[in-house]
Amino acid sequence: MRVLISGSGGQLGRALQTTAPAGTVVIAPPEAKFDITDPEAVSRVVKAAVPDVVINAAAYTAVDKAESDAAAAQRVNVNAVGLLAAAARNAGAAFAHVSTDFVFDGRAHSPYPPDAVPNPLGVYGRTKAEGEQAAAELHTRPLIVRTAWVYAAKGQNFVRTMLRLMAERDEVRVVADQIGTPTHVPTLARTLWTLIDGGHTGIFHATDAGVASWYDFAVAIRDEGLAAGVLSRPVTIIPIRTADYPTPAARPAYGVLDKTATWAITGPARHWREALRDCMNEIARG
Predict the structure, then answer these.
(1) Cα distance between residue 193 and residue 25, in whole Å
(2) Is 124 a catalytic residue?
(3) Are 70 and 126 in contact (CB under 8 A)?
(4) Which domains does the chain have, with CATH numbers?
(5) Exposed e or buried b for every residue in 178-197, given b needs 16+ CB within 10 A?
(6) Which candidate in 131, 166, 247, 283 could, as Cys together with 235 as Cys, close a disulfide (CB 3.0–4.6 Å)?
(7) Are 163 and 221 in contact (CB under 8 A)?
(8) Comparing C-alpha atoms, which of 227, 222, 209 is closest to residue 266?
(9) What is the pLDDT of residues 65-110, one digit of tens each?
(10) Which residue of the set 60, 124, 215, 254 is catalytic?
(11) Distance separating alpha carbons of residues 224 and 190, to the nearest angstrom
């Protein structure tokens, strides 16, 4: 199986390369050579790769910045998805695209199923929802996988930010009234490979198991960081309300995704705390 990956330098792009099934030929051009917003570049790279599958692991994820730079979010999260989907279709390749819990408004009180109607709150969520539509319109049977709160040992993510702040400060304030599920990026990568290998199409949800607030997540990062030797001293973590920490973009208060259909294929994911422990040990090893 020949697989072309966009966003090869990001957290998910790197994880897809390290978790690829044996025998998979992975083509992962650097972003400088694979500008997914350029129609000519997309056409040229896809034709040269002769892929069986195209995976879009690239995205504009600056949630707050998107509010003032909607055009950039539109180019990456919508227009580029359409270009990739159409190029994959023209090449006779399958197409897999990664989306987010931010396509929902967070007003639910139980996990969102894959067929829940999107109702995004901000530019980032809107462009991701429109990207899903572009994939569905420009490819015959795309695979769309929504995820949430993704982190890895390297890169820019909540875990790395918290570790930096905890090393610099005696106390950290973290929002406690936004609920979701942390997702260690290898979980997402392996789920994608399993769904792709099985020829699945449609919308699926993929996160680790369990539920947490950002405050719960931060407390776990502190405790696991201390246990792994990544942090040298305990730090006080203070829960705050979303209203106490205003941001340009509104965020869903509840973003838990229903993984029932996914886990029927892949088996249940581990609890997010176990996955976080693995990540922290990886950070400790350097």
Answers:
(1) 13
(2) yes
(3) no
(4) 2-152+181-209+255-270 (3.40.50.720)
(5) bbbbbbbbbbbbbbbbbbbe
(6) 166
(7) yes
(8) 209
(9) 999 999 999 999 999 999 999 999 999 999 999 999 999 999 999 9
(10) 124
(11) 23
